[in-house]
Amino acid sequence: MKAIAYNIDSFKSRPYWIIDILPKQVPAGSAGQYFTIEKYLLSPPRVSDIYRKFARVLIALNCYHDIIVQDGCRLLENPSPAALERLVLERKWLNVLVGSDQAMITVTGDDHYMTLYGPSKDLLELIRNLAAGHGFYVWKPKNIKTKQ
After folding, report:
1. Which of 39, 54, 66, 119 could bridge 124 with an S-S bond, Cβ 3.0-4.6 Å?
2. pTM
3. How many degrees, rounded to 5, is the angle at CA 53 between CA 67 and CA 40?
């Protein structure tokens, strides 16, 4: 895969899905303790477990598709599994471009979810399977319409 010049902002206008530890969006004003639990999950050592699983999903995805990881100004084409895991565990903002499907996954470094933008139907199914194998759910935020 050639390092293609991607317009990252163009992905943000595409339909998106959340790859999350929760099975669906928590409604506004929920009776539960979402923010307390979120803070708990994003504290050590739990956050490292979540991000290690994120890395495993991305590494498994790279078995099926070429990826380009944008780390700041650097573009890393098909980084080694160890390098990809290290980048994810550093909890930086990463854009992971899935070239063959022109999709993107963002890892923000401070959330318990990743965001998947613009996947094809086949890629969405693959990511749902990979995510489920690592204890994650893939769901579409409410008020976002799509045919997939």
Report:
1. 119
2. 0.89
3. 130
